[in-house]
Design goal:
The chain is an alpha/beta fold. The protein has 14 helices and 11 strands. It has one domain: Aldolase class I (TIM Barrel), CATH 3.20.20.70. Strand 1, helix 2 and strand 2 form a beta-alpha-beta unit. The protein is globular and about 65 Å long. The chain binds flavin mononucleotide.
């Protein structure tokens, strides 16, 4: 082929070899992907400002000046401030009772310690702002926002030579963020792990690419093979943003019980459920998601209240390693995650398969 199909607007913008972004909560995975020629964004929405600063230093000491990103959640719908106790007091008794019934039915154990969620940036604006200030102070090369538009931080970030990426599930959100001047848009489809909208990856990537102009578009949702990467580039994206792909990698800190479930799972083992956070979220099916899908279940609460309600179940299941109860965000591409490889190998296999795909197509055309 005359040109390298993996050299794109995104790889040029970030100065990386391969236009593949790993979203991960695991620092080891992030460092492996960065050092293998990809890019990584570390999800830090659950961390305190001090922990975020420490994680940034940890990554910097291992990537020899290569760029990386940090992802927060900045939902405009979050309450301005408020302690956990204040937020908890807004949960109706009917919902507490339903959660109690699930706990009893499945013998869900109590969490062993304080619930992690209580530092989630989506709980209130004050916490999210304190997290964001660390990224600005540290001049993290890329800030990404998984929930909520990051447009308000553009001036502060650009004046520090930082890039800002927004994640969208609808073309109209993309249009607004592009007009505001974000540096790249992640167009995320329904297939994706975690919080996601209702438009399929094939449609949203093509729609957003069509209106993007010079802004690089990054495809997300269901990308777990090199053929997906090649397809994303054909749809007009300049790269891919991937989450599920890394969960069962050797370096990943996901519990081995969950890794085994992921390796065995197919697209049908995930569900698009509001029961965990109050917003549509794709996760592995578990008793909590299944019970909230029954006719007896009350209407789910808005974020962040549903998240507070589900937190005890999730952490109780995790703390006691109850495989029958545990869940994890996972996308519909999970069926292609079938063996435990190093993050470096995952990246290199993805790239090789994408190049083979392009070469195959060119061969067919010739
Ligand atoms: C375990 C897990 C946790 C996630 N948590 C977040 C998060 O905190 N913030 C965010 O912006 N995206 C989060 N995501 C979504 C990813 O950023 C990404 O958009 C998604 O994984 C892409 O779809 P894929 O999993 O099919 O590759 C998470 C994904 C996974 C797998």
């Amino acid at each position: 082929m005359p040109q390298d199909p993996l050299r794109t607007k995104l790889s040029d913008l970030l100065g990386i070899e391969y236009p593949v972004i790993a979203f991960t909560h695991c620092k080891d995975v992030a460092v492996e992907v960065i050092n293998a020629g990809g890019f990584a964004v570390l999800g830090e929405a659950m961390h305190t400002p001090d922990d975020i600063a420490a994680d940034i230093a940890w990554i910097r000491s291992r990537v020899a000046g290569k760029p990386f990103g940090i992802d927060l959640v900045l939902p405009a719908s979050a309450p301005p401030s408020g302690s956990i106790d204040q937020l908890q007091s807004n949960i109706p008794d009917s919902h507490r009772e339903f959660a109690r019934q699930i706990k009893e039915k499945y013998d869900v154990p109590d969490p062993k310690g304080p619930v992690d969620l209580h530092t989630w940036g989506g709980l209130n604006q004050e916490l999210a702002r304190a997290q964001l200030d660390v990224l600005l102070d540290e001049r993290v090369p890329v800030i990404a926002s998984g929930l909520g538009s990051p447009a308000f931080v553009l001036d502060a970030a650009h004046s520090r030579d930082m890039l800002v990426f927004g994640l969208v599930g609808k073309a109209r959100q993309a249009r607004r963020q592009i007009e505001a001047g974000v540096d790249a848009i992640i167009a995320q489809g329904y297939d994706a792990a975690g919080h996601t909208g209702s438009i399929g990856t094939f449609s949203i990537v093509a729609e957003v690419s069509a209106i993007a102009g010079d802004t690089p578009i990054i495809a997300a949702g269901g990308v777990t093979t090199g053929r997906h990467l090649a397809a994303a580039l054909c749809l007009g994206a300049s790269g891919v943003w991937t989450g599920t792909l890394w969960l069962a990698s050797r370096e990943s800190d996901v519990d081995m019980i969950v890794k085994e479930r992921l390796l065995a799972a197919t697209s049908d083992d995930t569900t698009h459920s509001t029961s965990i956070s109050g917003m549509t979220m794709r996760v592995l099916k578990c008793p909590w998601t299944e019970e909230w899908a029954t006719p007896e279940a009350p209407d789910v609460l808005q974020a962040p209240y549903q998240m507070l309600l589900s937190a005890d179940y999730i952490q109780g299941a995790n703390d006691h390693r109850r495989g029958d109860l545990m869940t994890e965000a996972a996308g519909q591409g999970v069926g292609f995650v079938t063996s435990m490889k190093s993050a470096r190998q995952i990246l290199l296999d993805l790239v090789e398969e994408a190049i083979d795909t392009f070469e195959g197509l060119v061969g067919e055309l010739a």
